[in-house]
Specification:
Elements (H helix, E strand, L loop, with lengths): L33 H8 L12 E11 L9 H15 L4 E5 L4 E4 L1 H4 E2 L2 H11 L5 E6 L1 E2 L4 E3 L5 E4 L9 H9 L30 E5 L14 E5 L34 E7 L5 E5 L17 H13 L21 E3 L4 E4 L3 E5 L7 E7 L9 E6 L3 E4 L7 E9 L12 E6 L5 H6 L1 E5 L3 E2 L4 E7 L3 E8 L5 E9 L2 E7 L7 E9 L2 E10 L1
C-alpha cells in the first residue's frame, strides 16, 4: 500500500531546507509537538510501566539511482537494525520489519538537497501505521532527519553498526526533541546572533518551528522561543527538552567527548554557572562513540507517546520466532568445486526460524563491498547467472527474519567458475580416466588416455584458491596411454585437474585424503 502524493504548495520563498552541512548529524525540525507539551505539564498522568515489551513496525525503503545503483547493503541494514534494537532494549521497545524491504530507483530522491524533496519521496511511498525509513546517499546534507508528519531519511554512511543516528531519528519520531532545543540556530533561529559560550547564555533562544507542522502548505516562517536550561535545575521542567534528567546542553554542532564522556567545550548558563555537556545521550549531538543511552524520563515519554499518540503502531504485539543461533551450513558448491560460470546453483541447510537469507558472493574473502554481490532470498537455494568465467569466488549466507537480525554468517567457502559446458569437447573425442581418486596424500595420480590419434595435452592441477600447483605436458600416441602425474606433497582437500588440448578441455575434481 502507498500513500498518494499530496499536492504540495510552496510560496515564492525558497526552502533551503534545514539543509545543514552534514557535520550536523540531524536535520529533524526543531520544536516540541503539541502532545509533548501537554505531556510535560503533568508526566505522572501519562506514566506507563516499562515492564511490557512494545513491538513497533518499520517499513524499510532502500533508495538507489535511476539505474538501480548505490543501494544500502542488506548486511549493513541488518547490522543497523541490530544496533537500533540494542539502543532501545532498556526502553523495552523493539522494532520489526513490516512486509518486504522496498527498493526505489530515483536519483533525485537518492541525493536530495532539501527536506521538501524528502517529504515528497515519503508521501509518494509511505506505508501507513509504520515508521517509514528511507536509506539514501544524501538526505538534505544531514546524517538523517525525521519529519513528524512523514518519516525518517537516513544517510547510508551514517548507518553503520556503530552509529546511533537511526535511534536518534526514531527518538524524534516518538516525540523526543534535542536536549539543546532552541540552540539549533545558536541564539537566533537563523544564526544571525553569535554567542560566546564564556558569556552567560540568554534566558531564551529563538528557533524555526516551520518544518514541524503537519503540512507543507506554508507561506511564512513560524518562529518560537525556548527557555535556556539552567544548571541548578530550576527551569528543567519547561526549558529546552523539558526533561530534568538530561542536564543543560547548548551544543548544536557535532562534538567529540573526553574520556569521561563529557564535552570539551565549557558553556555558561544564564546564571553564570559553568558546565560541560553530557555525551552519553543519544538525542544529543555527541559523537557516536559517546552516545549510547536514553534517559529514564525520555524512555517513559516515548512509551507514553506510543500508547497515546501512535497506537496504530501497536497493531501486532506478538513477538515472532527468533532465528536459531547456529549459522547456516553450506552444502553446494563444495569447497573448490568447479561450476558453470553463467549458471551457478548454490544451496545450504535451512536455518530454524529463518524466513529470509542474505547470500553474498565476492571475489575477495573479506567481502569488500565493491566486489560483492548481494542476493536477498526466501529459499535455501538459488541459481546465480551473473558471475564471470575463469574466476575464484567466495560465498557465505546469513539467515534472518522480520524480528531477528542479529545473526551470524555461515562459514566462508570458495568455488571456481569455468565454461564447464565446453569441457565435454575432449571427453567426447577421447576416453580419459584419473585414478586413484580420492588420492592418498603423498602419492601420484595416473592418467589413462584411450586415443584414436596422436594428441598433445597439458595437465594442470590447481588448489581451492585457484593457485597452480603442478603442470605437465604429454605427447601421446594412438591407443591406450598411461602417464604418471607427479604431485608434490598435497594437504587434505579438493583440487581441480584441467586437461587441455587443441581439441578441447576436460576437468576433473580430485580429492586428497589423509
Amino acid at each position: 500500500m502507498k500513500w498518494s502524493l499530496i499536492c504540495i504548495i510552496v510560496s515564492v520563498w525558497s526552502f533551503a531546507a534545514q539543509a545543514q552541512q552534514w557535520d550536523f548529524p540531524c536535520g529533524a525540525p526543531s520544536g516540541k509537538s503539541a502532545w509533548l507539551k501537554q505531556y510535560q505539564l503533568n508526566p505522572q498522568a501519562h506514566s506507563r510501566s516499562t515492564d511490557t515489551l512494545l513491538l513497533v513496525p518499520l517499513t524499510i525503503h532502500i533508495v538507489g539511482t535511476d539505474g538501480g545503483e548505490g543501494y544500502f547493503g542488506v548486511k549493513n541494514l541488518l547490522d543497523a537494525l541490530c544496533t537500533l534494537n540494542a539502543d532501545y532494549e532498556p526502553a523495552n521497545i523493539q522494532f520489526f520489519i513490516e512486509g518486504d524491504i522496498r527498493y526505489i530507483n530515483n536519483s533525485s530522491y537518492y541525493n536530495h538537497a532539501t527536506v521538501l524533496e524528502g517529504a515528497a519521496m515519503m508521501f509518494e511511498n509511505n506505508v501507513p501505521n509504520t515508521i517509514n525509513t528511507y536509506f539514501v546517499a544524501d538526505p538534505a546534507g544531514n546524517c538523517g532527519y525525521n519529519l513528524p508528519y512523514a518519516g525518517i531519511a537516513m544517510r547510508k554512511s551514517c548507518s553503520d553498526a556503530t552509529d546511533h543516528t537511526w535511534a536518534h531519528e526514531v527518538g524524534h519520531n516518538l516525540s523526543l526533541p534535542h536536549p539543546f532545543l532552541g540552540w539549533e540556530g545558536g541564539v537566533s533561529y537563523d544564526g544571525s546572533i553569535p554567542h560566546n559560550f564564556n558569556d552567560p547564555a540568554p534566558e531564551v533562544v529563538l528557533y524555526d518551528y516551520t518544518y514541524f507542522q503537519d503540512t507543507l502548505i506554508m507561506d511564512t516562517l513560524i518562529i518560537d522561543t525556548a527557555y535556556v536550561e539552567k544548571v541548578d535545575g530550576s527551569n528543567c521542567h519547561f526549558a529546552a527538552d523539558g526533561f530534568c534528567d538530561t542536564h543543560p546542553d547548548y551544543l548544536a554542532n557535532r562534538w567529540n567527548c573526553n574520556a569521561n564522556s563529557m564535552s570539551t567545550t565549557q558553556q555558561t548558563d544564564p546564571n553564570g554557572e559553568h558546565f560541560f555537556s553530557e555525551g552519553w545521550w543519544i538525542m544529543s549531538y555527541s559523537d557516536d562513540a559517546c552516545a549510547n543511552s536514553f534517559s529514564s524520563e525520555q524512555i517513559v515519554a516515548m512509551r507514553a507517546n506510543l500508547y497515546e499518540e501512535k497506537p496504530e503502531y501497536l497493531y501486532n504485539q506478538t513477538l515472532g520466532e527468533l532465528v536459531a543461533a547456529a549459522p547456516a551450513i553450506l552444502e553446494f558448491p563444495a569447497a573448490g568445486e568447479l561450476v558453470q560460470f553463467d549458471e551457478v546453483a548454490l544451496s545450504w541447510q535451512p536455518v530454524e526460524g529463518a524466513t529470509h537469507y542474505l547470500l553474498q558472493i565476492s571475489r575477495l574473502n573479506n567481502f569488500t563491498a565493491a566486489l560483492t554481490n548481494d542476493y536477498l532470498l526466501t529459499d535455501n537455494q538459488t541459481t546465480v547467472f551473473d558471475l564471470e568465467n575463469e574466476r575464484s569466488y567466495y560465498w557465505r549466507v546469513r539467515a534472518f527474519n522480520a524480528y531477528s537480525f542479529c545473526t551470524a554468517f555461515s562459514a566462508v567457502e570458495e568455488f571456481e567458475t569455468s565454461d564447464v559446458s565446453a569441457t565435454d569437447a575432449l571427453d567426447n573425442i577421447h576416453s580419459i580416466q584419473v585414478f586413484p581418486n580420492p588420492l592418498a596424500a603423498g602419492s601420484s595420480m595416473t592418467l589413462v588416455f584411450d586415443l584414436p590419434a596422436s594428441l598433445d595435452v597439458q595437465a594442470a592441477l590447481f588448489n581451492s584458491c585457484g593457485q597452480l600447483i603442478e603442470q605437465q605436458s604429454f605427447s601421446l600416441a594412438p591407443g591406450i596411454q598411461r602417464r604418471t602425474f607427479n604431485t608434490p606433497t598435497l594437504s587434505t582437500g579438493v583440487y581441480c585437474l584441467k586437461i587441455s588440448s587443441k581439441q578441447g578441455l576436460s576437468v576433473r575434481r580430485v580429492v586428497v585424503g589423509g
